[in-house]
Every structure is written in structure tokens, then in C-alpha cells.
Design goal:
By secondary structure, this protein is an alpha/beta fold. It has nine helices and nine strands.
Length: about 300
């Protein structure tokens, strides 16, 4: 068993892994190839298939560092992409994904709706299809819901946004619809202009062709945040093959449930490395516990 940190010290012991994580650039190239195969497959993938793929590869999903304005320098809350996020007091269809991003001015939950890539923007002419209108209407429903101050309070409470550094920040939600393919937009340029007119300063529409992995998002996991006994529980759905453990993320990850299971379930991580990560996860969790005890 690795040496645990001294109860009166903030020091820690590093240990070299038997097998290093896959390189960022290699991982990025792999995701691109797999993504291209999936969305260009015939028959086109279902929404459920796309959901599972994006849960596996969170770096494809836009919004981690804000979706409005310039890219933020602050990592998203939980260091993860939330799959099928709970919206407290909302009883309709929930988003497929959500990042809780922030910058120095505001916290920005990014509500993300995906559809099957096979769905079309337009009918026979340039009128929007019923599927597109329905998807866009879903984002409008979330926008109306979150604009209610009472719902914002419940949302902040559930996702821990009443604590520093979030509580002093303004609240500026954003909404993203990932829908359709670029080919259809190129074929109907007037229709594409009409589509652009649907976008607003907080609502964005993009095709599946615009999704690409971000090489520096290699430590983000996919999560589900659930309610248990009146508290929010953060459960890990997946970890990337580039996943590593370190002191700077130990406290964040000590709040995760099922992180060990997610590591074991990633069959693309070599068995020796999986065993190493599980063992070191216990070390870092104990290190955080001792650090907290020392402070108290």
C-alpha cells in the first residue's frame, strides 16, 4: 500500500505509473476518426447512440469554457460534463447535457439538446421541419423556466452555486441545439440564413459537423448529478483514456461517486494502468481526508 500523507503535513508522495496515459494528440486523432465514422454511417446513428458516444468523449461537446463571449480561463464546475441534468421543479423533457461554466463575471449553465444527425432542418422547400421546430421549442421552454427567479434559486441550491466562487457571480444561462448536417445547409443557403436568424445572444444552433475534440479538455469526465436524501450526489459515468490523478484535482474528485467503477469500465485503458489508477485513487482520497482533518 502506498505511503499516506502525514496527518500534520500537506506533503504527498508521487508514484510513476507502469504505463503512461495515451498522448493528448493521439487521443484527439482517435476521437476524430471514431466521430467521423459514427456520424457518416449509413444508416445514420440514432440520438441514443450519439448520446452514448458523447458521454464517452466529453471533449466533443461545446460549452465547457463558456459558449458566449470569449473562452473563459476557468474550468467548469465538477470538472465534468453533466449528462441528462436534473432541473429542480421542472417536469418536462430534460437537456441531454449541461456544462456549468464560469468566467470572472458570470456563471453560465449551458443547456444542450442533441437530436439524431438524420433529422432535417427543412421540409421540401425552406420551411423548417416539424422536428427542428420541436427541438428549438424545447430550448425555449428551458429558457422560460430558468428565467423565473424561484427556479434559479432551486437550480443554484441543487448544483452548489451558492458557494464561492459562484455566489458572487451574475447568472447568465445559455442554450445550444446540436442538429442536422452541414450538407443540407449548403444546399439551401436561404434556409441557412433563416436558421441563423433563430440564433440569439444566448441561443446557438450548430450542426454535428462542427463538433470536434479539444485537446486541452483531456481531464474532463462525464457525470450524473442525482438527488439522494435531500443532497446532490455526483456519480461518474465515464473517464477519458487520458485520465490522470494529481494533487490539484484530488479535492474535486474526492466528491465523486463511482469513479473507481468508471475507471474499470474503460476498456481502452490498459489493465495495468487501470489497477494503478484505482490504487492511487485511494491514496489521494485519504490525502484529502487528512488535509481536511488538519484544517478542522
Amino acid at each position: 500500500m502506498p505511503e499516506l500523507p502525514n496527518a500534520t503535513s500537506d506533503t504527498y508522495t508521487l508514484e510513476s505509473p507502469p504505463i503512461k496515459a495515451i498522448k493528448r494528440e493521439e487521443y484527439e486523432s482517435k476521437i476524430k476518426k471514431e466521430w467521423d465514422i459514427l456520424i457518416n454511417r449509413d444508416p445514420s446513428p440514432s440520438e441514443k447512440e450519439v448520446q452514448k458516444f458523447l458521454e464517452k468523449y466529453p471533449s466533443l461537446v461545446p460549452g465547457a469554457f463558456n459558449i458566449t463571449g470569449g473562452e473563459s480561463g476557468h474550468a467548469p464546475k465538477f470538472w465534468g460534463l453533466i449528462s441528462q441534468p436534473i432541473l429542480p421543479s421542472y417536469y418536462g423533457y430534460i437537456p441531454d447535457f449541461m456544462w456549468i461554466s464560469k468566467n470572472s463575471s458570470y456563471v453560465q449553465p449551458v443547456f444542450i439538446e442533441i437530436e439524431s444527425p438524420r433529422k432535417k432542418y427543412f421540409g421540401a422547400g425552406i420551411d423548417f421541419s416539424a422536428n427542428f421546430n420541436q427541438a428549438l421549442g424545447q430550448l425555449e421552454d428551458w429558457k422560460v423556466w430558468i428565467s423565473d427567479p424561484a427556479n434559479q434559486i432551486k437550480f443554484r441550491e441543487f448544483y452548489g452555486l451558492n458557494d464561492e466562487p459562484y455566489k458572487r457571480l451574475s447568472f447568465f444561462p445559455a442554450f445550444v441545439l446540436i442538429y442536422g448536417r452541414e450538407k443540407e445547409l449548403y444546399e439551401k443557403p436561404i434556409g441557412n440564413k433563416r436558421r441563423h436568424e433563430k440564433e440569439k445572444n444566448d441561443l446557438f444552433i450548430m450542426s454535428f459537423d462542427r463538433l470536434h475534440p479539444r485537446v486541452n479538455w483531456d481531464q474532463f469526465v462525464c457525470l450524473k448529478v442525482k438527488e439522494k436524501n435531500g443532497a446532490s450526489v455526483i456519480s461518474v459515468v465515464s473517464v477519458p483514456e487520458t485520465f490522470t490523478l494529481s494533487s490539484n484535482l484530488a479535492e474535486v474528485r474526492s466528491n465523486y461517486f463511482d469513479l473507481d467503477k468508471a475507471i474499470v469500465n474503460n476498456e481502452n485503458i490498459p489493465p495495468q494502468r487501470r489497477d494503478f489508477l484505482i490504487r492511487r485513487l485511494e491514496y489521494w482520497n485519504n490525502w484529502i481526508k487528512m488535509a481536511k482533518n488538519n484544517k478542522s
